[in-house]
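Title: Prediction job returns without error message
Component: structure pipeline
Severity: low
Priority: P3
Assignee: unassigned

Description:
Job completed but the reporter wants confirmation the result is attached to the right record. Sequence as submitted:
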Amino acid sequence: MICPHCDASLLRKERPHNVCGKCRRRYALDPKTNPLGLSDLRVRRVVAKLTDDGRLPCTPGHLWYALSRRSLRSRPVGGAYVAAALLGAALLTAGFFAGPAPLAYFGFVLALLALVLCLLAAADRDQGRPKMLPGAFRRDVLEPWVQVYGELPPGVVEDRRYPAPGGLSGAGQATTLLCPDLSVATLIAAAGLPERHGLLLVRDLPEVPARGPVIVLHDVSAPGLLLPWRVREALPGRGVIDAGVPLRAVRGVPNAVPYRDHQPGGAVLSRLAEVGDYTSDELAWLRKGWTYPLVAVPPGRLLDAVSRVAERVGRAASADQGRAATVGFLTWPDEGAP
């Protein structure tokens, strides 16, 4: 690896205990020991891209997804290949030992086929699971970084200590922005969008005030896609704008990289089916827990999109506050990921 301090190329034996053998300075992350294969230099490059070289904020959530994206693209060996390989081995073994006890060998073949089924089930269960969850990312990446450098990378806003989003709003606000994702709410607040557009930023439905239109930001997941419908049911007659990521902008799109999270409850899936906007294949995909989070949208694109919809809602609010609308303005960016 390259030392982030002196740019020396170091062999593993030349950097014991995360200390450069040339300049004797400590670094935070070693790609040989970090589960995501991260180095200090790669983290700096990704942060620079997320923050547009320091002109924008980003959060630990955005950094976690950007640094995990490469591993999320990895898939286990296809189940069909595993099955074919083990079935072939079983048949060869049976053929080699066939003789006085064919039933015993046939049983051996069946046992191997059962092993194939177990491997297939394990592959399906683990497919798309993050190698490092956000909690582990904080422990294994951010905390060592702070220990070495004294603070988070420049431009990364700590979402655990940021003021509560509900306390940040523009003077005379008339529009509520509902965003359950703490990292994205922190990003929006840190960029000053509530003050700029007169928004009340909240993270939960009970925090929504009694008047004015509501913009709903959500991820692609069964609970996320259901959120605008829940808001409309709870606030009849109010203007509710679905400004979340559309499912069809993510599923099957090459540059979009979802991951597997917790499987949703049956009640959520039943309600989504009642909505009637999703095919059986899409519902089956959501049932497995596939998720495309809001932090997957790069900060610059997300902030621009929120600003556009806030301006549009502000212009339309006085003309028709009771109209519910679907915006669907967030789409997967076509630029390369960090």
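Comment from assignee: result matches the submitted record. The two ends are 19 Å apart (CA to CA).
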